Amino acid sequence: MKSSKNKIVNDPVWGFIELDSDLHLEIIEHPYFQRLRRIKQLGLSSLVYPSANHTRFEHAIGTMHLVRSALDVLKKKGNKITEEEEEGVMAALLLHDIGHGPFSHALEQSIVQGISHEELSCVYMDELNRKMDGRLSLAIEIFLNLYPKRFLHQLVSSQLDMDRLDFLKRDSFFSGVSEGVVSSERIIKMLHIQHDQLVVEVKGIYSIEKFLIARRLMYWQVYLHKTVISAEHMMIKLLQRASNLASAGVNVPATGYLALFLNKEIKADDFRSNDLTIRNRALHHFGYLDDADILCSIKGWMQHPDPVLSNLSRAIIDRNLFKIKLSKTPFSESKLINLKEQAIKKFGVSMEEAAFFVIDGKITNSAYDEEAENIYILYKNGKLKDIKEASDINLEGLTKTVRKHFVCYPVEIITR
Amino acid sequence: MKSSKNKIVNDPVWGFIELDSDLHLEIIEHPYFQRLRRIKQLGLSSLVYPSANHTRFEHAIGTMHLVRSALDVLKKKGNKITEEEEEGVMAALLLHDIGHGPFSHALEQSIVQGISHEELSCVYMDELNRKMDGRLSLAIEIFLNLYPKRFLHQLVSSQLDMDRLDFLKRDSFFSGVSEGVVSSERIIKMLHIQHDQLVVEVKGIYSIEKFLIARRLMYWQVYLHKTVISAEHMMIKLLQRASNLASAGVNVPATGYLALFLNKEIKADDFRSNDLTIRNRALHHFGYLDDADILCSIKGWMQHPDPVLSNLSRAIIDRNLFKIKLSKTPFSESKLINLKEQAIKKFGVSMEEAAFFVIDGKITNSAYDEEAENIYILYKNGKLKDIKEASDINLEGLTKTVRKHFVCYPVEIITR
Amino acid sequence: MKSSKNKIVNDPVWGFIELDSDLHLEIIEHPYFQRLRRIKQLGLSSLVYPSANHTRFEHAIGTMHLVRSALDVLKKKGNKITEEEEEGVMAALLLHDIGHGPFSHALEQSIVQGISHEELSCVYMDELNRKMDGRLSLAIEIFLNLYPKRFLHQLVSSQLDMDRLDFLKRDSFFSGVSEGVVSSERIIKMLHIQHDQLVVEVKGIYSIEKFLIARRLMYWQVYLHKTVISAEHMMIKLLQRASNLASAGVNVPATGYLALFLNKEIKADDFRSNDLTIRNRALHHFGYLDDADILCSIKGWMQHPDPVLSNLSRAIIDRNLFKIKLSKTPFSESKLINLKEQAIKKFGVSMEEAAFFVIDGKITNSAYDEEAENIYILYKNGKLKDIKEASDINLEGLTKTVRKHFVCYPVEIITR
Amino acid sequence: MKSSKNKIVNDPVWGFIELDSDLHLEIIEHPYFQRLRRIKQLGLSSLVYPSANHTRFEHAIGTMHLVRSALDVLKKKGNKITEEEEEGVMAALLLHDIGHGPFSHALEQSIVQGISHEELSCVYMDELNRKMDGRLSLAIEIFLNLYPKRFLHQLVSSQLDMDRLDFLKRDSFFSGVSEGVVSSERIIKMLHIQHDQLVVEVKGIYSIEKFLIARRLMYWQVYLHKTVISAEHMMIKLLQRASNLASAGVNVPATGYLALFLNKEIKADDFRSNDLTIRNRALHHFGYLDDADILCSIKGWMQHPDPVLSNLSRAIIDRNLFKIKLSKTPFSESKLINLKEQAIKKFGVSMEEAAFFVIDGKITNSAYDEEAENIYILYKNGKLKDIKEASDINLEGLTKTVRKHFVCYPVEIITR
């Protein structure tokens, strides 16, 4: 795993990170990976936490760094891991988010529909593997959970994967929400393997409880912060409007890379095409699409004749974010109609268009803890217990799905 | 200075920052200020320090926060400062960088020539003052050093201004160069006023020495890091080429806001025009120009028929940065010619165009310490001494101008 | 509240702490307060966490610092607090632990029986108040919850008092158990007063949950760490033995200040005496008793002819701590007898004396959360809810009393 | 180097420190090493920096931890180091300060004269080596610079040894003087070996400059802080007085371990005796002498009939430290006489005794930088340069000996 060029990355979160494998350097230097420098990890959250400008690039490298520590710990405890496996799992982590586009969540619901970032990650990995003469095959097997040693996959994707251990700490660090800080190093020290499964030694039990609480705190304080929710749904509606208009033949100018997707010159199926030319064209262009394309295009739309497009664009760029209300029960139809009528009056739009100004929906934290069951605690006698049983405290609240309904609308709308 | 809406900004560097003045909130909410969210403080440095993605927005708010602490300290020591002066100097700090464009240094030497960011800051302040019915007049007087209490200006601009105390700490924090950390809070605790001048109490002397050393370290490790120098000069050459081609009538597509400047539809003098329509048009458009415009335009140029434009564009976007050599003496003409001949062969360009691939110049750290003389130490008997005299150590080395010559060129060029 | 001498204390936990009141300086400079420098906050915990050597002195000053921040926050939110009240509540916090002796818990169960550190604190406050001509009267009223504004007392003693907000953070900091870190500053920002009661604004709800979890983690990881429990019970037994021997007329040499208590020349009732000479003699001597007295006396006992005294002394000083076993159910009588028989054989002691080598008991975390009910969350509509109801998660586990039985005995004992 | 018991120490400065060698565990568990828990690293500095209560125990373990990192770095760069050498140099660092007594500096000038802590360290190492059947021989060779690979000794003792890299950071951390923070990890990453010599790679040059400045700052701000100087000289005088009185036959009660040295029952030469019984008796008793003995004895002396002894004792315990004046030139004889006359009047002592109340002397920082010449910078071409030449700044000021004269006397003395 040695390399001629030993490079060091300065990371404010983890300190010096060494890049000492040619394979990893080759991945990092590839334009598809470099592009992650131009995609913020938290998208529009920086409108609420202005320092949260960290990118998917640092995160990917951070996860690679953490897994190296984890592997060292596991090896010290007598678990066998070969050098190839080590290089492979590190590569898998470097690449785990390679398919993310700018403002992923919004993009997938509008301009780049029909293919998820997870699927895109796989396509990019395959293509890179082809270019690198199969040297990523092991990494891909681990990523896809096809490799016999299942615990290696769990380091990449599970309740305690390096992805979470990096992003929770990193997002907390850059947003300044210091309470979200997770003792990732401590948890890593407590990892072990039992029956080919990643587990946590019993003395790490409090750290795991703290991890679960911190994770929950980050969800409500950052990821599901109500102003962030508002901004993200404005973005979804804005990109949907742009997409609709373009489909309807209206001229919606955009930067070069975005235009190809907006005008359906590249479609989801192109990424799955057996024709390498078609597939690589799609990969190439998506591979240069980044936050700047979205922002520049939106800035251009601020003067667009369509009032929906221009108003939403100005609202995002100038940060006149919609007011948001939360409720445990859905908002009544009459309340929504009432708001839409105000929007019609205020912006001179149709009832149909008013739905772009009065956005309702629901948020749920379920995504992240549905499976909270499978963190296993390893006792000194070799027995395993699910954290929920092992813990003295009732963790149900942490794993229960919380649903909240919301409605966002411009502050200019007077509510009666 | 009270406000109805007490807002808090989460800053990873200084913690919670309160925004409790309507005046300050009005400034911050203005689109001209919001735009600073989209301009990185350190431009291309993130190509070397990947986490250095912090923006001029956070920096501006950070300086406002520091000056509040400084004013508290000064008042506690018996110096009279009115509430209006407090609000004014805080506003001056919020606005001190308002005229910065994206990649300022490069832009001023290429597409937006003929007006400095300092002059632009003044024009923006004037315009905002007009819009805000003169409520910024005191801030502007302090900023321009026209206000009788000179020490207030020194908080905004001097060897120990809040600008430096914020950016050194912030740049060090986000780049992960922890050695650059300056104890800004400690220095602020030691500030005092003597003869209408900002001075440092004698027990702060070691902190000042440390500040000078840390500043120097940040210069060589970050601001003048050789790879950063290479990237910045590539950017200058690239934008100059774009500008030249546009002037020569070649079609150089760019995003909307950049195009106006590239095609000289807006010129430096417009910002100075007495015709408000002309001036405000210039301010408006420059007021939406940001990092994304530059990046998107460059991405578009990767396919441009001009080999200079396309090669430099690809090199920056894909991070194939030029190799850089430093030397205490200038590089010989023959060495440079030799390199250019290689470039001609490699890229099929003319000798004139080769100057865009073989970039020589000199860097100097003088900008920051020429005037290092004027940090004054206040002794218990009321006497002042220049830090250079007051310090036991020889600070000349820190204040001496260091000049280094450099030459950058593509790695593909084989040097004999 | 101004003082001629503005002093600053460097605190690694909170940064610079200003001492700007003559009243506070006078308290701090008194020998009774200075003595806290020689009493470790965590007693024997440093045998497990070697850096946990912080003293009650720093803690007391830390709580004073925090309450100043809390008062600033409360005043900013419109709550009226006079300067006298401010000075008073700060003084109350400085003095809240003034009655603590060295290794308090162990001392109170052995050599200084019959008076608790809480009662002692009151006696010291009274005496200092007398010496300071009644200038502490307000502080004492607040401390004793006799002052009309009850929320001031809650800052000194309640589920969210400054005592906890300081010690949890401080103990976590110095022990290096970084997961115990509580965002005390954040919680303080969220404090408010409603119906003369200290409450937390609703947006602080996650911080409170995190605080409860961190507190629990600190209990099990530090305060009730099993090796710490073992060390503390060895200390209790050791001091009880010394006390028993002295009462029985055996010569048990000790340092001067300890000897007075060991030989019952000063008794608990002396602190309550109406005869000022007697009371002040007791206060004076207890006021110079510190960790060093206990350690030196124990070192002297390492050679004592009594095998119980000498063995326990050597075990503590050389850190040959007893092995400890925990169990959810009590240990059986036969198990304990068996262990004692081993001790009799090993140390040549009687069955009665064997109880000093085989120590059983139970620990419970109830002390700290029984009353967890009374943290109130303030909603925007002015309503209050108990945190247990307000939180989405089930906090019962955090407030439930956990009981564990333990038995400690020398490692030299072979268990069958 | 593997051990059956893998132990972890929680260190707030460096995080988790693993103890994974039986040899190291055996050293640490020995009473001679455990005693370091009871000796503060910075002696009386905690009277100025109240949190500076860290002990020689944590420091010793910290240096061991750092050298493990350094060895990893050096091995990665291709330098050969065997496992035995690794274990040896780590043991050497664990033991490098084993001979320190409580308040070493003061003790060596008073009660334990005639043998330095350096010599004592060697004697203790020899004795431990004997007990451990020669398993420390390699560690001792390295410590004494008798081992062929000289760079190993430089890790233990040189301008860049692990001792400094730990104590500067640790002292800065616990005192809260955050400006003294040294980037020890960064420096360690830059270490290399050239011609069997420890050197620093050229890119570490700014870190070294910063290290030199931080070291200087720590000297003046902490180690030579004027109030610390005053306290330390009061302690020297106090212990000298106790020693003088004891020699003159006056009864000076002290704790058991101190009494043996005070009454000359153990003398310096006993440590050098060829008679093992005599030597081990000395080692044994010195091996239980700690801070607590000094403090308890002083507390006892507060009531001693000798006014010098009692006054100095009370002044230290109650922290009524002497006022201190500094000057670049020596204080005049007449000034000193004048002060002594005041002392005679105030304390009813003789002129000779007045010298215990009016203490003059000089301090110098030379000890730490005389040899600053020998930090070598390694250039890419393999050449070495002394840091003084390699640095752009003039480091002479940092290496120049600064001498300051001081006089301390009780505040009660009125100066005319």
Secondary structure blueprint with pairings:
The structure is a homotetramer of 416-residue chains.
Chain A: E1 7-11, E2 15-19, H1 22-29, H2 31-34, H3 56-76, H4 83-95, H5 104-108, H6 117-131, H7 137-143, H8 150-156, H9 162-175, H10 184-189, E3 191-194, E4 197-201, H11 205-223, H12 226-247, H13 256-262, H14 276-286, H15 291-301, H16 307-317, E5 323-327, H17 333-347, H18 351-354, E6 359-364, H19 366-369, E7 376-378, E8 384-386, H20 387-390, H21 396-399, E9 403-409
Parallel strand pairs in A: 4-7
Antiparallel strand pairs in A: 1-2, 3-4, 5-9, 6-9, 7-8
What does this structure look like?
4 copies of one chain form a homotetramer. Chain A has 416 residues and is α+β, with helices and mostly antiparallel strands. Chain A folds into 2 domains: 249 residues, Hypothetical protein af1432; 60 residues, Growth Hormone, Chain: A (Up-down Bundle), CATH 1.20.1250.30. Chain A contains 21 helices and 9 strands. A 4-stranded mixed sheet of chain A has the order 3-4-7-8. In chain A, strands 5-9-6 form a 3-stranded antiparallel sheet, sandwiched between helices. In chain A, strand 1 and strand 2 form a beta hairpin. In chain A, helix 3 packs antiparallel against helix 4, helix 12 packs antiparallel against helix 16 and helix 15 crosses helix 16. Chain A starts with 6 loop residues before the first strand and ends in a 7-residue tail after the last strand. The model of chain A has no long low-confidence stretch (mean pLDDT 92). Chains B and C meet through helix 10 of B and helix 10 of C.
